[in-house]
Amino acid sequence: MRPYGAPRGEPLVDQLPNLGREAEMLAAMGMDSIDDLFSDIPEQVYRTEPLDLPAPQTEEEILREARMLLGTNISVDSRPSFLGAGLYSNYVPTMVAMLATRGEFLTAYTPYQPEVSQGMLQAMWEFQTMVSELVGLPVSNVSMYDASTAAAEALTCAVRVHDRKASQKSTIYVSDLVPPHRMSVIENYTQGAEIEIKMLQHDDEGMLDLAAAASAEGSCAIYVEQPNALGLLDPGLCDLKSIVGENTALVVGVQPVSLGLVAPPGDYGADIVVGEGQPFGIGPTAGGPIYGLFACSKAYIRQMPGRIVGLSRDSDGERAFTLTLSTREQHIRRHRATSNICSNETLIALMGAMHMALLGPEGIEKLAQRNAGACAATKAAIMAIDGIEMVHPNGVHFNEFAIRLPRTTSDLLSFLDEECEITGGFDLSQWWPERENELLVCSTDQIDAEDIEELAEGIRDWLEASE
Amino acid sequence: MSDLFAFNGAEGAGYAQPDPVSNEFEIPKKLQRNRLPRWPRASEPEIVRHYTWLSTRSHGIDSGFYPLGSCTMKHNPRVNERIVQMPGMNDLHALAPASHLQGLMAIFHEMQEMLSHCAGMDTVTLQPVAGAQGEFTAMRCIQEYHREIGQANRDKVIVPDSAHGTNPASAAMCGYEIIEVPSLENGQLDLDALRAVVGDDTAAMMITNPSTLGIFEPDIAEAAEIVHKAGGQMYYDGANFNAILGKTNPGLMGFDAVHYNLHKTFSQPHGGGGPGAGPIGVKAHLSDYLPAPLVVAEEDEEGEVWFDWYDPPKSIGKVHQWHGNSGATVRAWAFYRRYGRDLEKMSEHAVLNANYLRHRIMNPSKEVRETIHAMPVDGAPADVVKHEFTLSMTPVKEATGVTGKDIAKRLLDYGYMAPTLYFPMIVPECLMLEPTETESKEAIDQFADDFLTILAEDPEVVKTAPHDTPVKRVDEVWAARNLVLRHPMDD
Question: I need a surface site. Which of A268, A396, A418, B225 has the fewest CB within 10 A?
Fold first, then answer.
């Protein structure tokens, strides 16, 4: 029972259960006022004026304002969108958000007490298993922040493992087609360990120069992406491990959906596989929260970043799960930890696990086929337009490809946006200024024949309008 | 028991998909996948039941009291979940033109302003996605700042021995050497120890206030002065920010940089380990180094406000591929709008509840006291605590052999999440408790009564706890020795 005198109608009454009961609780402690509780804050740092913020709002008012604000955004689902470049339009089955937002999952902290966290621990162990199966490596952690931090920490991990025997000390090689924003994350994460980054070149067809890649032998790691940032699948990467040798980690970044059709990197010698888990489990969601995949071979376990779940048993000998290998982590090893990561993206990984479990083996294959099929159809429709060229006419693409335009990409994108209500793709000059007339077109499973026709028509109209 | 990999139904069971638009593609032979991943084959009802069963074997704030110290496990308002699943949020692309993201950028901008104001900082970036990443990002900014002003020799970072493990780990990842300073007997910062280690090689001091003992550092301003005099920067770990909103702020205390844990103070649900969000705020001299991009508001000739991206001129670049955990930013926005200027009331109630819980545990009635084998002692002596407090179970262990861990496990039987265990390391047999502002007086009373009951129980019952949980005490050593990190599939 609330005592008389409790505030009525105050917006916070549904959030603070002890509103109006302060005096009662203070009296129990022999105090008169809330101020007594803050008497330990020295006067010189004590604030007296109220926060300069708006008045509190009720749930209804907040919802109305959110609807108004978010309603002004233009989302990828509201029109044909060919924008990918690392973040992909997808369909997440209804079940996923419904189950993942069950309070027992949503409102839990890291499972430090395994006896009452078996559900999330088992779900993450299953996630680890499904990622392991997908990429062809035995070990997966429960997620990194995103693909970029996963790649960066894979490289620092590889240096810790290989530096002792490396002839090129603290040196790593990175594909020059890694997008600049990911390169920037890699640079921020590797500079502290004074790791030297050397770049690997590509030929005109966008294939890694394997002869040049041989120079990576004796370094700690080599990082490449399959498909690469221009959407190309590169068969040459299958030979990379034998070129660089046992003592150099092969780290491969993947678009995980492609692995429904494409060989898992573990099968061609990758030591660590990273990638953006996002297409499994969650929409592009303005870039976050998403989750980074991190899988590795056993040699890297003790140097890997992030949390990992292991099978165990309880005091009755029954099957149980728990976080394990914690002695690598910051809360135990402090400045000698393998990483500072603590909070990760578990809930989003859980959503990914649910999505993967629902797809099943044939479902992931079909999802990959839908992507590759939509991409092939888009490519065919665009190639039929005079004046547009493929940047890599002989390339094999998964769900993205680059085209070259007669004029700037930004001009085409504005035209498609304003005249046709189409989001036409990604302007590659934003990453590489020399690619000012190049457009990266992405077709995921969410693109249908009508969308493709609309895009082709829009491009034709643009070409005509500029003649 | 439900085993995901035991489901082996029809091909394509689960989620049925439309057919591909085209089959006119070919993967080169060398790159073809030969064997599909051995994922389960299960229908939707089977998957729903599997995950529902799993959820019944987990404990969240929704399930019961969650006094996990330093983690600020407060109620998560559900309207926030509804908002992030609305069109115009879940389906936004981070690389879409700014004209497609104006509503989102308005929220980002408001959050940058609000967080700056609350912490007494000048500029905020929302990009870091966790507290630890916020620490790392801020230390990178400080590092570049020192390089720019010709003081690259500053290669040491000072942390108190009571600091969160992420502080030294984050600084070490930037390449800093860590100097740990011991605390005083009473858990407070030792200014003499600090004076002894600062110098012209000091890059920064990282500290949380209130400390991990839940005590407000009385000498914080003087500590800042000592570090600043030596030319170092002051970094504020915002894990304990829930205690002080509106009452004081890191800017007033003399800090140059701070991270916020949106998943603590601003109620982003922690999701069993994440996502979090760890925006950072900095004073003007560090603003130019923040990760790119920030959101700025511009006004056109007609007075219309337009939001745009802005790259700080000396930016360290990126720490996350996109704009950080945007969904967490939007949830935190909805949370802060609920409180508005009354965020101060949030902190008042967090502190009220913590002090009340401490009082209830440490002052049992005479009748109850007589049943208890031994009482814990305060981790740090103080008249008042802030949002959390520590208890040392050493007297209990000496009297009965029951450890802090045993008590933590026994609390699970009563339907509670255990407090944070054995942290901070400077308190022996430590339990760290943080009730947050969203627990009712009744819930706190009940927890205190149950806690005292455990202290009076047969020590054997406590030592062998938990008894009523989905599994009994889990053997962590077995897990580490055997390292079964995935389903074996027995093929």
Answer: A418
